[in-house]
Here is the input.
Amino acid sequence: MYRLSDAGMDAPTLAERMARVIAALESRLGPFPYPSYGIAEAPDDIKGWYAASQQTFIVARASAFGYDHGNTPLWAHEASHAWWGNLISAEGEAGLMVSEALAQLGVLIALETTEGDDATARFLEFSRSGYNSLQSAAGYFHIWRQGGDKPLSELADDRWDHNLSDSKGMWVYHMLRHRVGDRVFFGVLRDIIQQRRGGAVSLADLRAFFLRASDDPGLAEFFAQWLDRAGAPVLDLDWWATRDPDGTRGVHLEIAQTQGGEPFTIDLEIGIELDTGERITRTIALADARHSIDVATGGGRPVRVELDPRRLVLMWRPAYGPRPEPTAD
Ligand SMILES: [Zn+2]
Here is the structure.
């Protein structure tokens, strides 16, 4: 750790945190590919960049250090480039989904390890201070509203592409991990690292690795809808409490997909809060533009309904800014 100032988190605390982050990455991806890792502070008057990573160290402007939360996402993203970008380079179309989006996945691993699931979900939604605000769900919907959205499999070097890979691309790996489970997900990444170290991998290779490793019959469709088309679900929820003649309470839900184009196929968790303080979670398989369902809640009166309470699906939410215009596709 090479510091010029003592702003933000002090060097020993930051060093200890980064040791935990790298250990967490190693437990999933295998040994850190290089003998050491360092963080160096550069003066703010260096022009042209905020942070840059080499194989064994990252150098960043002084302003990147000035956060009490330690700016873990920045260091974790750059450390993850040791695997994705340095040890293994990207080739073919949409290389950003290998070099960038997988490095961004390292941020999620770092945050869940050092700060927990709520902080990780908050980062997925909004990024945080000291880090690029576009690299989040809110950032993705901003890019969409600006006209910059495109299928991730077509990422190249257009204006928004880098931030698309680190926002929606990050979310796609987050969703894929939840879908196939940690054993398959990180098993595939370790296989790729072992087989391709010193070489290159393409998004098409990555997709093929996952399809070979998983017996999930819906996985090809998952990749097609999240990689080969633009957009994400924009849902309208209407709901009301119900009560049967025998006194059984429940909730009636009507969910409409309003984003345009073919409806998305998603497993959507619904959180239902009851007046008893109890919380019920149901997962519903959405595949149509309109979906209605009744959920029995026993004796408890439903008082609040939340879609995707654990933030497992990339979908528009009011907190992300105005609803994006429906797309033709
Ligand atoms: Zn990067």
About this structure: Residues 11-227 form a domain with the Neutral Protease; domain 2 fold (CATH 1.10.390.10). The chain has two domains: 11-227, 235-313. Residues 77, 81, 100, 103 surround zinc ion (CB under 6 Å). The radius of gyration is 21 Å.
